[in-house]
Design a protein that fits this description.
Jelly Rolls, 2 domains, globular
């Protein structure tokens, strides 16, 4: 039998040790979930804290949800389209990087060659607003004093422009001209505002700090591109350095159904 030389033994041992070390290290490193998934199912990869490094309670809470950091004003995603798009459900978990700073965040879709706002995901003026509101599941009307009982009656007796704030998605749906309302995106306070017409739906909490966004849209007007994809964007007009937005994997479901977002 031919004996292996000591040098070869050492080489084999070093290689084996390096492979083992690589496997162990890879189990420590956080594995982000893909930004997009077609169906609303759980992400198989879970974020794990680095070994031997004590994690704070906040770090553990952040790592609990596989996510991507969006460190800019916009991020795009493009799922394959479907023949039936009139009840497309879009859902994901999200969290502010800094819980003391609430950004303004919109979901957009590309229609007719340009991106348009579909829904307001979050806004600092609406996060803890306690005004009474009426809604239809897609749009809400907040009022300092409840005088309009149905959000769809807003155009029958439109409030003065100085008293009405609206986001661009809601204004487009209700065919409001720019001079008929105050753009909610540009407001830093609600002084003088008595009505807020918005596509914002209060998110459902998930754990200590994550929130669930989920809405159903009629995307018939969203035209697939040459690859058969629909084009969406997460728009953060209020983004500033150090104010990243954390986004869990996005679920796009063209068949409306109540499915859990993990």
């Amino acid at each position: 039998m031919k004996l292996t030389s000591p040098i070869n033994d050492k080489f084999i041992a070093l290689c084996g040790g390096a492979i083992l070390l690589a496997i162990v290290i890879s189990s420590w490193v956080p594995q982000p979930c893909p930004l997009l998934r077609r169906a609303m199912i759980g992400c198989p990869a879970a974020l794990k804290p680095y070994a031997k490094v004590p994690a704070t309670v906040e770090e553990q809470e952040i790592a609990r949800i596989p996510h991507q950091e969006i460190p800019s004003q916009i991020a795009y995603f493009s799922p394959k389209s479907d023949d039936t798009r009139n009840e497309t459900s879009i859902g994901f978990l999200f969290r502010e990087q800094n819980l003391n700073v609430h950004p303004i965040v919109f979901l957009q879709a590309k229609e007719g060659g340009q991106f348009v706002d579909l829904a307001l995901i979050t806004h600092p003026l609406l996060e803890n607003l306690t005004w009474p509101a009426t809604g239809d599941g897609h749009y809400r009307l907040y009022q300092r004093e409840l005088t309009i009982e149905n959000v769809n009656d807003i155009t029958k007796n439109l409030p003065p422009a100085g008293q009405l704030a609206a986001d661009t998605a809601a204004a487009r749906h209700f065919n409001l001209a720019g001079e008929q309302y105050q753009n909610l995106e540009n407001l830093s306070s609600l002084d003088g505002i008595s009505y807020i017409l918005t596509s914002f739906q209060p998110p459902v909490p998930n754990g200590a700090s994550w929130k669930t966004f989920r809405q159903t849209f009629d995307l018939t007007a969203a035209t697939p591109d040459a690859k058969g994809n629909l084009n969406f964007a997460i728009r953060i007009p209020s983004y500033a350095e150090g104010q990243s937005f954390l986004l869990g994997t996005i679920g796009v479901d063209f068949a409306r159904a109540d499915r859990k977002i993990n």
